[in-house]
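Protein 1 of 2
SEQ + STRUCT:
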Amino acid sequence: MPTKAKLHPRNQHSESYDFARLVTQTPELEPFTISNPAGQTTVDFQDVGAVRMLNRALLKTHYDIDFWDIPSGYLCPPIPGRVDYIHYLADLLADRNTQEIPRGRHIKALDIGTGASLVYPLLGQSEYGWHFTGSDIDAGALKSAKQICKLNGLKITLRRQNEPESIFRGVITPNDAFHVTLCNPPFHSSMEQAHRGTQRKWANLGKGRSKKLNFGGQNAELWCPGGEVKFIARMIEQSIEFADQCLWFTSLVSKKDNLQPLQRILKKAGVVDFKIVEMAQGQKTSRFIAWTYMKKKQRSLFFNRAET
């Protein structure tokens, strides 16, 4: 089977999907399978139902998630790219852990905008056993996330962000200490831009024109005024207040052109260190930025303190 370009070495999806195995684990996937022109089994990635069912099968087969579903219209994230972020975060944390990948519930992660899918906590708990706190402004998303936790017997802390302009305040309590925060920010500046982006994606994949958002998404998941630069800038500005409670703050950055203004914002914020981590996933390259207000000696001390 062909290898996908440069997925993280620990990513379970570096090869093509094993549909025979997936269908065995999740028989409901079989009606959604089709054959591509090369005669290989796949699904129609323009079909929202097929994408949702594929995710359900992947989560059950590879991550022992017996129940997973999301309400109609909510973001249905592609699993391989999402788990890549988790693996690279593990590498980031290993840097202050004598290069040993940190595992176990003493590692605390905060997922900003966890969504109805709860995908990052599900993947991170399964791969590394970390304890996750997920926050969201959307009550419907949190209701779905709570159902996923309940029906899988998972202990994931979920918190409602009641102030839309706040990111960390109201979510991080005075007693919290997080090794890492993560976020997949809304990266479009309007719904119209989101639809144009979808058109470009389908054209690049040779699929022609489609009005479908195959991975779905509510407004707050897809766009915000000013797009991802403004959202991440607000995150950086607000992170200063919690500089001694989080080892690394991180966020995905969908557009490479946005890195330069974000780097200027980070320098102005007075961070001690920041990194740009690139992740090549199939036909596209993604990346995340990470920043910390702690010096290297402080990071090691924090790592030990947060484990207690």
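Protein 2 of 2
SEQ + STRUCT:
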Amino acid sequence: MQNKAAKLITQVKARDHVQPILRELHWLPVKERICFKIAITVFKCLNGLSPPYLSELLKSYLPNRSLRFMKENLLVIPTTNLKLGERAFSVGGPMIWNSLESHARKSPTMAAFNESLKTKLFKRSLNH
């Protein structure tokens, strides 16, 4: 749907490749868009901007002993036996969050986090 919408908006031929069009429109591909939305939701949860029922699903990673990455703002990724379990917010959210660069996780504002995240996802989608 996204590809068809992009082609309709730019009025290109149906057979034209969609990647340059998405780049021109500055649209994230669907997979990266999903990661973007989940990461934004995690940021809101960690900064008190979301409902408590969502925030309660996330737990900060606190190792038993002092380690270098204690200040990295990482989250615990619950174990799951099923591949389907990775789709749960309590598992997928921390997986996406922990995959972000440290400076993105430590962003002081929503705007700074949004910019850093979108830039990272755009670069990742262009490399595919």
